[in-house]
Design brief:
Elements: E1 2-5, E2 11-14, E3 19-24, E4 28-32, E5 37-40, H1 44-66, H2 76-79
Antiparallel strand pairs: 1-2, 3-4, 4-5
Length: 104
């Protein structure tokens, strides 16, 4: 969400995903998907910087979610061990058993 100020100095949060266009006539007009128009005090360059900062925060939080702690990851070696009595398969370079005989 980005912070915008209406002409009557009322502060509101706006979802930048709903913005279709930003026009600078004497006043800055934001057009939304639902057809509403919002007149704001900020210039288009300021709004653009706020939108970029918002998207940067979202992407950083999303990339942090991909970096799981070690205790959340499974041991791959235990997933690919052959059953008892099966023929011995050679291990690959990284120490894991291959999934298919062609992967050797």
């Amino acid at each position: 969400m980005i912070l915008v100020t209406r002409l009557d100095r009322q502060v509101m949060l706006l979802n930048p995903d709903h913005i279709i266009s930003i026009e600078e006539t004497p006043d800055t007009v934001i057009t939304l998907y639902n057809g509403h128009h919002i007149l704001v005090r900020e210039r288009s360059r300021v709004l653009l910087n706020r939108i970029v900062a918002f998207r940067t925060r979202v992407l950083r939080q999303a990339s942090a979610a991909w970096q799981r702690p070690k205790y959340c990851s499974r041991s791959r070696l235990s997933l690919y061990t052959p059953p008892h009595g099966a023929a011995h398969q050679p291990e690959s370079r990284d120490g894991l058993l291959p999934l298919h005989h062609q992967d050797v």
